[in-house]
Every structure is written in C-alpha cells, then in structure tokens.
Amino acid sequence: MSLRNAFRAATALSVLATSAAYAETITIATVNNGDMIRMQGLTDDFTEKTGHEVEWVTLEENVLRQRVTTDISAKGGQFDIMTIGMYETPIWAKNNWLVPLDDLPAEYDVDDLLPAMRGGLSLDGTLYAAPFYGESSMIMYRTDLMEEAGLEMPDAPTWEFVADAARKMTDKDNEIYGICLRGKAGWGENMAFLTATANSFGARWFDEDWTPQFDSEAWSNTLNFYIDLMNDAGPPGASNNGFNENLSLFQQGKCGMWIDATVAASFVTNPDDSTVADKVGFALAPDAGLGKRSNWLWAWALAIPAGTQKEDAAKEFINWATSKEYIELVASKEGWANVPPGARTSLYENANYKDVPFAKMTLDSILSADPNNPAVDPVPYVGVQFAAIPEFAGIATQVGQEFSAALAGQQSAEEALEKAQALTVDEMEAAGY
After folding, report:
1. Average pLDDT of the segment spanning 383-403
2. Model pTM score
3. CA nearest 260: which of 136, 177, 129?
C-alpha cells in the first residue's frame, strides 16, 4: 500500500471512529402523510452516512400540531426535530423557539429553494425551517367520469363549472361522488380549504382594522355554496374527512373530483395504490370570477427546537432529508413521480421531472398563490389559508368545529357563521387587537 493510500485509509477510519463516538439518537415528530412515511423508510441511508439513529413519532395532522405546539411553548424537549409549516415558523422564530438554519453547508444550495418556500419559512431573511416538500392546491379529477358527463375540464375552471360537473358526475347508488372536499374540523384541515375558497369568493378573515368578517355576505356565500355542493355531490360522512380520508376515497375510485394539496398527485397516479391511476387529470383550483383562485400555499418543513441537546445531529438530518441528493435517492428507489415536490427550483428544471404529468400544474399553482395579497380586498395579515398571527390556530380550530357541524347538518350555515363571528370577536378583543 502506498503512503498516500495508507493515509487515506487511516483518515477514513478516524472519521468513522469520530462518527461512532458522537453518534446520537434523535427524535423526530412528523405528520402521517405519504412523503413523510416514505422518508422513514429511507432513514437507513442517513444512519449509514452519519452513524446517527432516528426515532420517529408519527401523528395525525391535528394531533401533531397540538403536540409540537405544546412541547415547544413549554420547552418540553421531547423532540430534536419537528415537522412544522409556514404558519408556525415565523411566529416561533420571533419567540426564539427555533434554531436558525443559517449555517447549512454550501452544497446544500439554499438559493435553490423556491422563493415562495424560502420566504415563508424565514424571519428577517434567516431560514428557520427547511422545506421537505412544498405544495399549493389544485383539482384532481377523473378524466373518464368527466367525459361520461359530456364535459371537458378547463385548465383554469370556475367554481360554477366545478359545481355543475360534480353534480353531473355523482352516482350515489354506485358510490360515485362528484366531489370530495375536506370537512374534518381543524385549522389546517377544513379551515385551510375553506379559507382558500373564501378568498376566491371575496371573503376575508379580518378587514384592515382587524374586525372579523364572518358576518359578511361573502362568507355566507362561501359556506352555503360549500355545504350545498357537498350535500348534493359529496360522500356521506364528509364532516369526518380530511386529507388522508379523501385520498383513500379518490384512490378507491369514489371521487369524481378532489380539490386538495398538489402533493397528492403522486399518490393518486401511483398504480400500486390507486385504482384510477391512469384516469387522473389536473387543473388549477377554481375561481369565482373575482380575480383570486382558491388555492393555498404551504410547506411541510423540518425545524429544530431551541434547547435541543442534539443540534448538530439534527442539522445533519435536515441537510440529508431536504437536499438535492435525497431527491435523487427517492427517484432511484421510487421513480421521479414520487420525489418530494414543490421545494427546489432545480427539480422543475430537471429533464426527468418535466415528463411527470402533474409537475407543471403543481408549479403553476404554487407560483399563483400570493400570501401577501391573498384576498380580493386588502387584509392586514400575511398567509393564504391562514392569518399569520399567534391567535389564529386557536380561533380557526373553533371556527372549523362550527363549520364541520354545519356540514354534518347539526346547525345551519347562518348559525355557524354567527357563532364564528362571536367567538372570533371575543378572542381578538381579548388578545388586544
């Protein structure tokens, strides 16, 4: 062996010994979405490269939000990495609850992150959470059922077209429902969908003086339209359905249309999971002719809570899981259609990804969302399907419960809106707005 090779071998052994000596076990809280489940299945690659082990705490979306919020606000220290989004990141960063990600290695290429994603996960120009995937929302629809209804889906449809198509595609005797939409209560479940929809109908959460607007005609139009459409063309028990439940219904062939996260496209077109994989088309989320579409903007991102004792290992994981190399790893194992979308510019410049049927519509949807001007009329808040103020999550959870109850037929839309207005006024006055 030459001296050079001997030196390289000794150096490699030294690195391995150092890695083993400092190997950690990090605990990660994450949502039970498909891309996150896939990441867990690939964790051996991270462990092999770094020596660090990973323990996963996988939770349903509403439960995850509650658990991580409670833990970080109480400085509980249960987790070394949390899966959070655009709503929490700037608020928690302002509270000094998150570790800044301003020292990621040069090869990570932070400038490759889509500007909308990087901006939404930063505070004062500093990144505090790295996007695992980014999303907007769009229409996924059954091309065969649309054709049978004698209709052709436009690339940019109106709500009027969608409602008409949904009713024409519905065949309840054969468990075919023209449209599947979120009804499960939660600020990130039914209220994400309904807030984005309300934007297109000219509604808003607050006027420029922070006065709640649920007593407006625009909110009444939004909620009544939604409930009537779901009663006519939606599945039974829709008030219990969130992202995962509607995904399952669509994959079983029971939904004519589904308006939800763009990230779902890879699941509904995967022949291993979807019975209608070869019969799916895509279109932009609908508008109501007022200049705003009803799509949202979101990223599920990885962040490190301040106070973790394993900051270095946590940063190594984030560097691994949100890197260009991770995208290549998923592509090699699962194919390009299944890589985490919506986070990096380079993905949409990749020739392999340009052939994926939903890639362009996903990017167009993301780029069309404007968190600084989400509604038809001016608003004092930032956020498309949320208002980026600390009080929003609690208020919207309560409002979501009222709207879900109205969908379930337990009260009228007008009663739900009246309660929503009253509770929002009370909470905002108590918070000093």
Report:
1. 96
2. 0.87
3. 136
